[in-house]
Amino acid sequence: MPIYYVTFGVKYADEPHPINPLITDKAVAKIKAPSEEMARRFAFRHFDQYWSRVIPQDEGEQYTAAWDCHIVAYIIGHSIVWAVNTDTMLEPISTTQTVRREGAAS
To answer: Is residue 93 part of a domain?
Structure first.
């Protein structure tokens, strides 16, 4: 089944994406779909109107390399998997953080 890339445009360099803040101007999503028309339908389903273009795999790979983009999501039909950086995921977690408990002595 063909692969298509969704681009999001420079608008999201300066403002947060309304669907997911991981989406920036340097993000692309990969969609596995039987046709470009279905890839567009999946883009609308997952990103509403907040995306720029759907392009074929070869053009998407060139675009990603030329603009130093990262893949933010993988889509197969109605399913989406968000790709995240492990460091970003673990950032809020600290092994040195202590939690004060009610009634506990300082």
So the answer is: no
